[in-house]
Request: fold
Amino acid sequence: MRHSTQVGESVGTWNWAKTTCGRLSTYDRARLIGQFGLSAPLLPGEVLGRVGRAGHPPDLDQPADPPESDIVSEARRICRNATREHPWLYPHSLRTFRFAMLFAQAHHLLPRMDPEILWVSAMLHDIALADTSAGADSRLRCFAARSAYQAKTLAQKHGWSAERQTRLADAVTLHINVRVPPNQSVEGHLLNLGSGLDVAGNRYRTIDPKQLLDVLDEAPRENDFREVIWRVWKAEARRSKGCRTGFLRTTGLGLLIRTSPLARLTTQRA
Reply:
């Protein structure tokens, strides 16, 4: 019965996480492998970016700030407080938001996305990696699900509708999937792209390097960020056996992090 429930719910959604506690079934693993297949047409561009071949990115405006609101301020404060013990967290979260906003322009998704949801999800998408207990549902094995639980709790506190709460939680839980289509979750799609660019250099050729450097000037990427984030990821994979962290660890994420062209751009700037 549990397997049939998983079949009916897309892997990585908030409902899936609540049902499975974040543990992957054999069927879920097959679906994630299928996402690699759907991403295959992007492979030539990924390879070119990693060997230093520039693309032809569109002219994009400077990414806009999130709207000023109480939840925007509180999400920023939560992230910054966690950064006291984990210095990588707030800069990574801010870069993720800025990159996601650039992708929203490049993919013509600005009219469809909610910048407040995107900001809160960016600030809290990795919060469970910094604090494995605060505000978390202990049944949830997956760090993205625990982060989503904290984000959803914050949204509930600020009076968001149930629909917006779920939309926020979906964005956070989905962001570590291999691929998140915009018609599944537009904010999850953008969060996946923004965090993937910052961590592993994915879709590097989509954004003009000058605009990437503007983001790096605002939120510098420390020279050891690749080593730190990979160490954090491996530790989480050991804690949450059977979840997506371990699956991605064994399917090449470490290589993508080590070969990130964003790291090369950071070195050239220095």
